[in-house]
Amino acid sequence: MATAVRDDDVVILEVSDGIATITLNRPSARNALSPSLLQRLYQFQSECERRDDVRVVVLTGADPAFCAGLDLKELASSDNLLRSPTASSGGGASQARTLRRGPFGSRTKPMIGAINGPAVTGGLELALACDFLVASERARFADTHARVGVQPGWGLTVLLPQAIGLRRAREMSSTGNFIDAATALAWGLVNHVVAHDRLMQAVGSIAADIAGNDAGGVRRILATYAEGSLLNPGEAWNLEAAVASEWLSEGHGRPEEVARRRQGIVDRGRAQIVTEGG
C-alpha cells in the first residue's frame, strides 16, 4: 500500500514497497529550481537516506517537464540558486569533494531518474546525479549554462562526458542545443526510452527489481562504482579487490547464504528468458 509521507506545493514524496518516489511539482513553471524546491528536494533525499523502509529512490517531475533548470526570474534577484542546497551542512569545496556529489550531496541508495519531459541545464544536472535514467518519448535534454552565462556546479562537466563521451558533451555545452530521447538513447545518456504513459510503470518494474536484491550489496556495489570512477584503471581494480575482501571479512556472502539464494536467482533468470523470448 502506498503511503504519502509528505505533500506540499513544490515537491511530493511517496513511499511504497521499498520504493520512494520524489516528484518535482511546479508544473506551471516547468518544475524550475526555486530555493524552496531545492531545499525540499534535499530534505526528501536526506529523509530517504535515513529511512529503513526505502531501498531505492525514483526522481521524476510533474508533467509537462522533468525540470527546466534554474528559475531565471528568481536567479535575476539573488545568487542563492547558484549555491548547493547542501551548503549549510558543510558545503563549498569540502562538499564538492564528497563521493556521489551534486545536488543531493553524498548519497548511498540507488536513484533512478524517470525523465518525463525536458531536462534542461540544472534539470540535466539533476538527471545526471541519478544512477541511471529511463526516459519518456517526450524527454529532451540540453545544457544551456553558456547561453545564460552560468558555470556548472553540480558535476556536469564530469558526469556528462562519462555518459555520452567528451566530444559530444563539449558540443552540448558549447551550443546549448537540445537532443531528443532517441538521440539520448543512442548516445548512452539514458538506458531506456518508453511510451510516455508507460514511464512510471517501466521505472517501477526496474525499481522493484532493485528493491528485491540485498540492499547492502547494492549500495556497496554502487559505492564501488563511484569510488572507482575517481581512480585510474589499475587503482580501480585494486579497490574492487579490497572491497570484495573486506565484504567477506565482515561476514557477507557466506557460502550457505549464497546457496540459499541460488535457486531463486536461477528461477528468476529462467522466467526472464521466457518473457523476453515470448
Task: Explain what you see.
The chain is an alpha/beta fold and 278 residues long. It folds into 2 domains: 209 residues, 2-enoyl-CoA Hydratase, Chain A, domain 1, CATH 3.90.226.10; 47 residues, no CATH class. Helix content is 47%, strand content 16%. It has a 7-stranded mixed β-sheet, with helices on both faces. Strands 6-8-9 form a 3-stranded mixed β-sheet. Helix 6 packs across helix 7 and helix 10 packs antiparallel against helix 11. It is globular, with a radius of gyration of 19 Å.
Sequence-ordered SSE layout with sheet pairings:
Elements: E1 3-7, E2 11-16, E3 19-24, H1 35-50, E4 56-61, H2 72-77, H3 92-96, E5 111-115, E6 118-120, H4 122-128, E7 132-136, E8 140-142, H5 145-148, H6 156-164, H7 166-175, E9 179-180, H8 181-187, E10 192-194, H9 199-211, H10 215-228, H11 233-249, H12 255-277
Parallel strand pairs: 3-4, 4-5, 5-7, 6-8, 7-10
Antiparallel strand pairs: 1-2, 2-3, 8-9
Helix pairs in contact: 6-7, 10-11
Average pLDDT over all residues: 86
CATH architecture of the largest domain: Alpha-Beta Complex
Instruction: Indicate the CATH class of the largest domain.
Output: Alpha Beta
Full CATH superfamily name of the largest domain: 2-enoyl-CoA Hydratase, Chain A, domain 1
Please work out how many helical segments DSSP would assign.
12
The helix/strand class is alpha/beta
